[in-house]
Amino acid sequence: LAVVFGMAVAFAPVPRITWEHRDVGLVRFHEPGVFNYSTLLLSEHKDTLYVGAREAVFALNALNIAEKQHEIYWKVSEDKKAKCAEKGKSKQTECLNYIRVLQPLDTNTLYVCGTNAFQPTCDHLSLTAFKFLGKNEDGKGRCPFDPAQSYTSVMVDGELYSGTSYNFLGSEPIISRHSSQSPLRTEYAIPWLNEPSFVFTDVIRRNPNDTEGEDDKVYFFFMEVSVEYEFMFKLMIPRIARVCKGDQGGLRTLQKKWTSFLKARLICSKPDSNLVFNMLQDVFILRGPWLKEPVFYGVFTPQLNNVGLSAVCVYNLSSVEEVFSRGKYMQSATVEQSHTKWVRYNGAVPRPRPGACINSEARAANFTSSLNLPDKTLQFVKDHPLMDDSITPTDNRPRLIQKDVNYTQIVVDRVQALDETICDVMFISTDRGALHKAVSLENGVHVIEETQLFQDFSPVQTLLLSSKKGKRFVYAGSNSGMVQAPVAFCGKHSTCVDCVLARDPYCAWSPHTTACVTLHQEHGSGRGLIQDMSGDVSACPDKVQGSSQQHFFKHGGTAELKCSQKSNWARVVWKFQNGVLKADSPKYSLVGRKNLLIFNLSTGDSGVYQCLSEETVKNKTVSQELAKHVLEVKVVSSPPVAPTLL
Amino acid sequence: LAVVFGMAVAFAPVPRITWEHRDVGLVRFHEPGVFNYSTLLLSEHKDTLYVGAREAVFALNALNIAEKQHEIYWKVSEDKKAKCAEKGKSKQTECLNYIRVLQPLDTNTLYVCGTNAFQPTCDHLSLTAFKFLGKNEDGKGRCPFDPAQSYTSVMVDGELYSGTSYNFLGSEPIISRHSSQSPLRTEYAIPWLNEPSFVFTDVIRRNPNDTEGEDDKVYFFFMEVSVEYEFMFKLMIPRIARVCKGDQGGLRTLQKKWTSFLKARLICSKPDSNLVFNMLQDVFILRGPWLKEPVFYGVFTPQLNNVGLSAVCVYNLSSVEEVFSRGKYMQSATVEQSHTKWVRYNGAVPRPRPGACINSEARAANFTSSLNLPDKTLQFVKDHPLMDDSITPTDNRPRLIQKDVNYTQIVVDRVQALDETICDVMFISTDRGALHKAVSLENGVHVIEETQLFQDFSPVQTLLLSSKKGKRFVYAGSNSGMVQAPVAFCGKHSTCVDCVLARDPYCAWSPHTTACVTLHQEHGSGRGLIQDMSGDVSACPDKVQGSSQQHFFKHGGTAELKCSQKSNWARVVWKFQNGVLKADSPKYSLVGRKNLLIFNLSTGDSGVYQCLSEETVKNKTVSQELAKHVLEVKVVSSPPVAPTLL
Lengths: 646, 646
Fold this sequence. Notes:
The structure is a homodimer. Chain A has a domain at 549-634: Sandwich (Immunoglobulin-like). In chain A, 6% of the residues lie in helices and 41% in strands. Chain A has 5 helices and 44 strands. In chain A, β29 and β30 form a beta hairpin. The interface between A and B is large, with 87 and 87 residues.
């Protein structure tokens, strides 16, 4: 008769600042009548943002997306639409052409695929003329039939790697490479792909310093129905799969199939609190000169009992590679004739290692191509594509757990703070049209701000980051349009304390210009600027005594004194002649949790009223005067009319 | 790159009315220095409530628990306490005597067991002298060693049935019967009990109309670590187990062990919304003359991703019996030497059916006692105590799902509304010291009210209902004390509309006395009373025009007009001269979401202000005038001092 409740879960705090739609002027793009701005491609050297929407592709000025450079429409013919409707699909929504693939083919051509009324088709888009070349390639396996189905693709050296469904019903999933020389695909079998939802794919090039003759690898992120766990109903499991660019398929076994397809579980959970994030929503690969290896950022939500929980988990490439190159495999066993159970495979593993790329060692043993791999290796990888070991996140737990929000997409920027420490800034979008900006600091994650990108609260479907020096923007697409947001709103912080308390690595206080400036858009050194990622405001110059406002009120009346404060973490305190006032007494009341009402004024209420904000950072409370009012209550000598305040 | 969010989950609305601790005067009992009021026993014919707490047992007047009739202390000796502390337990908390068993032995004796500093001990409490008889029985197997561990017990015909742990470490779980003639227990084996948490037990007597010679049965409710599902970590599964009162154990196989121990999964989930409630918190058995069979009410929370979700599921006895008497069994199979998988057993089942009580059919086949059951049957039940079929709730879904709350305990009252329909009223406590009262109506569950029972928000550990006519109370125990609450607060509803909108089956409006009265405490018929469980207020007499309040204000001042409304579902609307006012304009503001502030008064503001509450019940909006104010603004002829409203 006793069960313990309560979990010590460290949820991230609410974002410190909330920028409403009206607070910030964001650049927008929306073409009347065009919806589903879902596929983005940025050309950084041309400063052009290509946008694939429903039945249209746009080229926008990446520095100001409101400026449309080109547009081209790709509509479904009435004939096709009618045929699609005949098959029971909606003419108004499903039987249209949703652009799902937008990849660079060469400097002057884009490769574009659309669902095309359940007849996926691809074409080449010439960027010089901004015209389709009319190739009309069959898009089966590159682009889904159904706009509601998941998809992912990446162009690697002119060959398209994609994860999508292969048929009208969407029942045959496929991960494939479209190549004239060596097209490859997955087996159509449960151990390979079991009702997957594709999330993301990208290539990771071999390390130039690598001495083992490794290959470039293409990683696929998806989730699929679990085979290794058994639950009350279909349990989704997030996965990472890997194929080698040099894969040529097998000669007999696995002919025209991947010989290097291996997949593993991605773990994003907090078992001590029974939190299980198993719905993978998006992945971002952070790479760059500062990093010794690429890092995968994944956004997750729970499948079970989700009433608004989201998490970000981070994985190192090396921990992924460790599992694929040295981990144990899983095998299936049949129980009592009719049940299948997947367990760790403890037997002998053939050489070369099944699923491995052809490297120096394999070449030395005369296996120069997947085509001459031994049958034993191929048969093994065909039967054992799933690893038993899982990929665990760095620090063995989510980087960030947030309540009351469903995260949809993520991009990550790596910036240098003023003190030269490196910060990873996460921009994470929600299903309510907002963008959270969070930074990993020593003692946890700091959620700097939340920006309402879309006024209609429509889910953010796609995010893209441009981190070119001086041109850092986040682009977001939803069903209704596109938004371009700066990476920071430094200028909105009007005092040094506000600027430092923001703990935004992009922002620093310039005592010279008495303004909160954007660091990476400033030329020259950061000398003299003030920033402290721990929120220590002691470097700020003593606050210049703010001017006070003077008010006259009549005896018996009511006064409303204003005060404004952006931080959701600050507490507003009112003082009268230096004594703290108790709001919500019969005498005082707070309106909108900030403004002070004083009822039934008498001459004793004359004096100085201060509005202070108190915010605690690292156990230190920072107090700031937000407003000062001087009140004078005058007795009006006249036959008094008794004021009846109820 | 596309995943669908959002679930169409029908959460129950917030309770319609919230009674704060100060709103309702509840009868309380608390003995200074005594904590953990966890074990309750009601003697309805004596009107006495027995309370087992830490190191004490009290007899309270059940009609007024503030009145203590008797008390007896049972403290741990200093010597024992020291020995307990030597074993690494806390002297201040764990090495005390927590009363865990309080059961009637005969009309004048209670059977009492306590943890007794990790040396569980039982004694007889004479009710005539209110003294322990000093029996000092070993309580092992009846009462846990550790006060933090789960326990449940019930006295049936002088024999104690209990579920608890059997050793100091709490690692050996046991369900047993303590009997001089035929003591029985469970096997100590994973298939029987796998790290269980015991929740509830009670006997259900054979149906007096039964012709199959069935036995009385004792049901145990608990949860344990799943063997049938495989998850990322230990998954708890709620279970119901059943033993027969006539069980005597086996002769060779299962000697002194249950031959009738069978258990099955209790399902409480909503698969279409991925909601899984697998943590069983409490069970209540509803029985009575109105019911054709007993009904089990279970309170559940989720184990996974629980940030405040609770559910109530209801099960019929017949659906439980169906599974035990005709369902399939589970069997375990070994996979690859080291893994165990539980699957449905499809082979032949021996006769008599394993785990069945000895009934007429068995007797006719000469099996008059479990002692002469064939070895095959006994070996089978020993290996297959778990059923493959699950117990599904009525309507195949939870009766109630509530957000932002952790339910702990439940009692259910069955009452007759004025129109003679039968209503099941659920009283469900929370881990924050509150009590929810909900009623199942045709179109779903209506949460009538929430009452803050404990001011310190301590979790409600135990609930008990007394439903004697005219003496209906809910008793609640927490770590800090006891509370006695009436089943309804009818008198708090001051108008007919309020009384009817409450949709409380206990309450009806008496036009005669112009008061909202408690139905079942009224003598005589309900003739002339008004109640409508669908919330139709049309039977209420036309509201007598409420008197209005007159106010005079000075020009330029601010007025605050009051209004009060209890319903959390109602919207407050202010009208001026019959036009709806827009609050939160520069002219008007709402304080506390109800009272109206009018700024900068001018003569044009003179007139009639009405505060209305609007509440929508079954798509019909009921509007009620809550307050009426007549305002007169007077210009004071004097040299004006400009009022500066900011």
